[in-house]
Each structure stands twice: as C-alpha cells, then as structure tokens.
C-alpha cells in the first residue's frame, strides 16, 4: 500500500533538494569558471567584466604555457614524481607489508612495533631537513621521493589485505617450487590488484601535488614541480619569465592576461589526475575497503 505524502513531507523534500542543488552549484561553479576563463580570448577578457560563456574561444593561454620551457620542465618533473615515485612506493609498501604478514618471519613482532611507533612519534621538520641535507639530496628530485616512499598507516592497511588471502594458495605455490619473491609477484600481487590500484592512486596524487617538501628541499627554479611553480605564478606572474627573461614575461603578459594564464595552469595541473581516476574506479572502489571486512 502506497503512503501519501503530507504537505510537510513535500516541503521538506523540495527544500532539501533545493539546498543540495545550491551546494552543488557552489562547488561546480569555480571549476566551470576556471575552465571557461582559461579558454577565453585575451581581447575579450579585457572588454568584459564577468565571462560565463566566452564569445570567442582561444587556446592562446595553453600555447603560451606549453611553449614556456620553465612550465614544461615543471610538468615533466611532476610526471616523473608521479610515475617513478608511485612505483617505488608501491614496491616498498607492498614488500614490507608482505614481509610482516608472513607469520614465520623472524623478528616480525619487533618490526610491527617499530612501524606502530611511527604513529606516535614523528621526527619533525628540522631532523627531516638535516637527514636530507646530510644525504646530499638538497636540490635533487629524489628529495621529494625518498622521504615519502611509504608510511606506517599504508603498510598496515596493505598487510590487512594480504592477511585476507588464504594461506593455502601460498603453500601450493611453494610446493610447486616458487620462491618467496615468486609467490609475492605471481600470487600475492595479482590477487591484491584492487589494493595495489587504490594505494597507487593515493601515492600518485600525493606525488603530483608535492608542494611542502619541494619548497623545503628545492631551491633551484628549474627543478620546481608543477604545484610550486603554480603557487609562484599565482603570487608573482613574472615567475614564468625564469629570472633573466622576466622582462620578456612582463611584455608577453601585457598581451596575454595574467588571469587566463593562471586558470590554464590550474587546468593543466588538475586534468591528469581527473583523467586517471575513471579508468581506476572499478579497482579503487574495491581497494578502498582494504582490511575493513574479513571472511
């Protein structure tokens, strides 16, 4: 039997729907405005106060950015961090998680305690900087990868996923003559693909958005990752000039609006991760529940 809605229920549904629509517009509008402004023709930008839909679309801002050596170099550095850093982080995190998930491993409990200690005590910024400096990694791209290879939280989460894999599969592989490394690569990793993809996405986003470590360890402008260069662009548009070419940058920015360059840079910095996620969504939905349910 279908229950009829009272006027109070209808009023609540309408008001609730209206508020959700307003909240959605408030979140979507900045993204929409950023994209639209990045494609706006420079001459139109100077003649209109608010541009919700440009009369003339243009790729001039993207051509200028992609033709700037400093910007392209920062994009390549961020791509290097997101690819190499993610692969190394997955290797270290997965290897350590698999090691402590093997019950016959000696000093397994000691290793677990050492990992748990990292939850309670952190070294702080000064010791971290001193370690990176003493290793000679200042102004090196590896200073943005090695200190961020893994974390105790990720190791324990991946260990929880490995613990859910039946031991009989590993024992059967060892009977067939597989070594521990073969068991890890041929049995554990294929069965843990959702977890690997989920953690890979976490690591990739973290490396792509590297900012704080970069401003601490990287002093040379031509070694800045994309997020640091973007922040400097938002504060000082002449950053794109690259030091000696600052006067050239100012001259070009008089022709090319600074705001359209900023918006185009934001779009370029955001799109890659947004394009990757839909392809990984299937595995990510499963991997996000790592260790939450045990059979």
UniProtKB/TrEMBL annotation:
It is found in: Cell membrane. InterPro entries: MetI-like (IPR000515), MetI-like_sf (IPR035906). Residues 75-280 form the ABC transmembrane type-1 domain. It holds the Pfam family BPD_transp_1. PROSITE patterns: ABC_TM1. It comes from the Bacteria. It is a multi-pass membrane protein. The keyword Methyltransferase does not apply. This is ABC transporter permease protein YtcP. It comes from Paenibacillus cineris.
């Amino acid at each position: 039997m279908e229950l009829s809605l009272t006027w109070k229920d209808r009023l609540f549904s309408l008001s609730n729907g209206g508020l959700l629509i307003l909240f959605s517009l408030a979140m979507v509008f900045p993204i929409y405005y950023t994209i639209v402004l990045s494609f706006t023709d420079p001459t139109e930008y100077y003649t209109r106060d608010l541009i919700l839909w440009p009369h003339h679309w243009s790729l001039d801002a993207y051509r200028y950015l992609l033709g700037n050596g400093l910007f392209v170099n920062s994009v390549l550095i961020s791509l290097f961090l997101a690819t190499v850093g993610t692969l190394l982080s997955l290797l270290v995190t997965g290897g350590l998680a698999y090691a402590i998930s093997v019950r016959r491993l000696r000093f397994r409990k000691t290793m677990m305690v050492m990992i748990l200690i990292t939850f309670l005590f952190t070294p702080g910024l000064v010791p971290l900087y001193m370690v990176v400096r003493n290793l000679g990694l200042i102004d090196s791209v590896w200073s943005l990868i090695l200190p961020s290879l893994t974390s105790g939280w990720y190791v324990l989460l991946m260990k929880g996923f490995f613990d859910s894999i039946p031991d009989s599969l590993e024992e059967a592989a060892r009977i067939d003559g597989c070594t521990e490394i073969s068991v890890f690569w041929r049995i554990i990793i294929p069965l843990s693909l959702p977890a690997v993809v989920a953690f890979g996405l976490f690591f990739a986003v973290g490396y792509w958005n590297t900012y704080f470590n970069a401003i601490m360890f990287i002093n040379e402008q031509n070694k800045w990752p994309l997020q640091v260069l973007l922040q400097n662009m938002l504060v000082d548009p002449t950053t794109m000039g690259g030091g000696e070419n600052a006067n050239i940058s100012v001259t070009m920015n008089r022709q090319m609006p600074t705001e359209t360059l900023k918006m185009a840079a934001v779009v370029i910095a955001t799109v890659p991760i947004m394009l990757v996620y839909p392809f990984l969504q299937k595995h990510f939905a499963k991997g996000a529940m790592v260790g939450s349910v045990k059979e």
